[in-house]
Specification:
Shape: globular
Helix content: over 70%
Radius of gyration: 18 Å
Distance between the termini: 43 Å
Largest sheet: none
Structural class: mainly alpha
């Protein structure tokens, strides 16, 4: 994350906002990219005055909402076979077991999985395509998607920004300590939402997940 932050520091602010929106947007379409790392790094940059926190948050929310909506459209058009192809393309991140587990969580908890999924890497990537493949009504999906995206983007950005500013003020000569405090604050800011999201997954039926698209004859 420190390397990402140093790399972003060399860019003009507009480029940072575009990268935040682009990386988070592509991740939300179903491609495993480090969207949360980019957001945390940009929020820490905002604490140093390199970029503006409100624009970081706006860019992150925009990327999350638009990316999920595109993922929804792609999933609705491609269905479960598309999710299986995504799993074959990214077997380490979105293999059959991961896809099946995400699908079970989504099918069981509906739009709540969209909202809380924004705080969990697996569901953050698959929420849009899964919602489309499962034919969740778009209005319900959009409401949960927008709420989750806004809470995640603005909450993460402003908490890290506030803690980073405080760390910079009180720990000017110990920059590493300020960074550690900011990172810990970022973890704490999403702790209860992550815990809730994990409970959603744990509430699913135990046992080995079935591959996405399995037929009754395969079971």
């Amino acid at each position: 994350m420190v390397d990402v932050q140093h790399w972003l520091t060399a860019l003009p602010p507009v480029a940072v906002y575009l990268i935040v929106a682009g990386v988070i947007g592509v991740e939300s379409m179903g491609v495993p990219l480090p969207g949360e790392i980019v957001l945390v790094s940009s929020a820490l940059l905002a604490a140093t005055g390199v970029v503006q926190p409100e624009w970081v948050a706006v860019a992150a929310a925009f990327g999350a909402i638009v990316g999920d909506s595109i993922g929804y459209a792609v999933g609705r058009r491609g269905g479960r076979p598309l999710l299986a192809r995504i799993g074959r393309r990214f077997p380490k991140h979105l293999g059959p077991a991961q896809l099946a587990r995400a699908e079970q969580s989504f099918a069981r908890h509906g739009v709540w999985a969209v909202f809380f999924g924004r705080f969990v890497a697996l569901l953050r990537i698959l929420a849009g395509p899964l919602a489309g493949a499962l034919h969740v009504p778009y209005r319900r999906f959009l409401l949960a998607n927008a709420a989750g995206g806004l809470v995640w983007a603005f909450g993460t950005t402003y908490l890290l920004y506030s803690v980073g500013r405080a760390a910079e003020h009180w720990l000017k000569d110990i920059s590493w300590a300020g960074l550690v405090l900011a990172v810990l604050a970022g973890i704490g800011s999403t702790w209860w939402l992550r815990r809730r999201a994990r409970r959603l997954e744990q509430a699913d039926t135990p046992g080995e997940a079935e591959p996405v698209g399995a037929t009754a004859a395969d079971r």
